[in-house]
What we know:
The protein is an alpha+beta fold. It has 3 domains: about 5-55, no CATH class; about 60-140, GMP Synthetase, Chain A, domain 3 (2-Layer Sandwich), CATH 3.30.300; about 150-210, Ribosomal Protein S8, Chain: A, domain 1, CATH 3.30.1370.50. The protein has helices at about 10-25, 60-75, 100-105, 110-125, 145-165, 175-185, and strands at about 5-10, 30-35, 50-55, 80-90, 90-100, 135-140, 170, 190-195, 205-210. Strand 8 and strand 9 (about 205-210) form a beta hairpin. The chain is elongated. It starts with a strand and ends in a 12-residue tail after the last strand.
Amino acid sequence: MVNEVFASEETVALAKQKACDMLGVSENQVEFQILQHPSKKMFGMFGGKQAQVKAVLKKSVSQKALNYLKEVLFYMGFPDFNTEVLSESPEECEIKIDGDGLGFIVGKHGETLDSLQYLVSIVANGNNKGKNFCKIRLEAGNYREKRRKVLENLGKHLAAKAVNFKKRVSLEPMKAYERKIIHTSVDEVEGACSWSEGEGERRHVVVAPKDKDENEEEIED
């Protein structure tokens, strides 16, 4: 597929339109570089130049994300990892990494994967305005899915424990999306509730029976 063309016409606007016609796309899908502005002929007969433009198809967010991810993985020493776009929409793009040695990519509690996801997201979105920001989600093997199930089971287990013993339970500090999974799973247990406490990296979830007096003793977790 052609993704770059050059076009010449009497005006820059006409040259841009001609380039879009050659690519078969609209102007908002193309990045233009004006190579030459038009100039009139002297005395209506001599010289004169047409406008010249270079038109390049814009890369999608997923293409930018995939290209940058492959480059980073190469310099991390993992050139053989497979990368694949699982889903893509204007709001979110999910990319999966597969291969041997995924533990190094995931890191402790997914910290390396989260950092890589953040970098890929920034690069892929480039200068996009906030309203056009596409969330990038990286998956390594099935790590996030397995982690989600672990957190769901943990939330339900601790919710039942808090209700049965009528005491609240404090979990270790977690990332925002992990806390959300805990809150959602706790909501499924009748008589249990949860909230977050602490600031920054110390923010954690507290699970308790709905009629819990906050001054009561906590359950050791």
